[in-house]
């Protein structure tokens, strides 16, 4: 059976950290490349809505737990353990809720009705991340319950 050269599996924490730093640095370069455009915020927001979810999916496919096999995961599974999915789900949910509260307070303080596109895309991306991890936690927990009987 031929092996897929694009099937990358990262087990060590320092390679995972390097991956995350690299994705963030690449985003800074991409975002700053639009600084001269008039429609910078709209273009950056649209790219952000694609960039970060794709980075999340690629990370979920590549990152593996200490004793996890290299076999393909279920499409919905984001982490090697349900508890870790729960931690990330709560973290992104708190981030999203703080973001919403901050945006509402900012709008009330400055009487702003329209939000800049980058603010909206940040909120949507954090909501997507939270929902992905909540889904992973719920499905993984229910699958383990069925397995245990």
Provide a descriptive summary of the structure in words.
This protein has 149 residues and is an all-alpha fold. The protein has one domain. Helices cover 70% and strands 0% of the residues. It contains four helices and no strands. Helix 1 packs antiparallel against helix 2, helix 2 packs parallel to helix 4 and helix 3 packs antiparallel against helix 4.
Structure in a nutshell:
The protein has helices at 13-32, 40-62, 82-110, 117-148. With 149 residues, it is mainly α.
Describe how the helices and strands are arranged.
Elements lengths: L12 H20 L7 H23 L19 H29 L6 H32 L1
Helix pairs in contact: 1-2, 2-4, 3-4
Helix content: 55-70%
The description of the largest β-sheet is: none
Please state the structural category: mainly alpha
Indicate the overall shape.
Answer: globular
Total number of distinct structural domains: 1
Question: What is the averaged pLDDT score?
Answer: 85
Task: Considering the chains and any ligands shown, give keywords for the structure.
single chain; 149 residues; mainly alpha; 70% helix; 0% strand; globular
